[in-house]
Write a structure and sequence with these properties.
InterPro entries: DUF7745. This is DUF7745 domain-containing protein. Residues 8-132 form the DUF7745 domain. Pfam families: DUF7745. This protein is mainly alpha-helical. It folds into two domains: 18-100, no CATH class; 103-134, no CATH class. The protein is built from seven helices and three strands. The protein has helices at residues 18-26, 30-34, 48-57, 61-77, 87-97, 103-120, 129-133; strands at residues 38-40, 43-47, 84-86. It has a three-stranded antiparallel β-sheet. Helix 1 crosses helix 5 and helix 3 runs antiparallel to helix 4. The two termini are 30 Å apart.
């Protein structure tokens, strides 16, 4: 296990990478995904328009629902790069798929975001107010 000092939580090192998680969630080939992954700031993302195409056209209903959930979490609940879904969101969906509760990770990330905004005295909260109410 690898402990990240800038994180309020830890995760195991042997988790699948962004590419493999996207392959699992979307059902698309490695080549398809590699061609669409973008670097935005300090993280990798996939454009929403590519996910939208999967939602509209994928023959597997379960995969369409998975991609739709990924999109909602990535664009609405935890937006990081405008019009893109961040790799951290695939971690969340991967954990949900394995029946692991993401609540501690969500709360830790929300706390860090609020704390960063408070320290800077500016910026915007990256997270979902409804989750804080829960």
């Amino acid at each position: 296990m690898k402990i990240q000092v800038d994180r309020a939580y830890w995760r195991a090192v042997n988790v699948p990478n962004f590419l493999k998680k996207l392959m699992n969630i979307t059902g698309m080939s490695e080549q398809w995904i590699v061609a669409r992954i973008k670097q935005k700031g300090d993280s990798k993302c996939i454009p929403w328009k590519n996910l939208k195409d999967i939602i509209l056209a994928h023959p597997d209903t379960k995969k369409r629902i998975g991609v739709f959930a990924l999109s909602i979490y990535g664009l609405v609940v935890f937006p990081k790069a405008l019009g893109h879904v961040d790799e951290a969101v695939t971690d969340l969906l991967d954990r949900l798929d394995k029946r692991v509760t993401p609540v501690p990770a969500i709360l830790a990330k929300t706390f860090r975001s609020l704390n960063a905004c408070r320290k800077a005295g500016e910026g915007r909260f990256i997270g979902c107010a409804q989750l804080l109410l829960r």
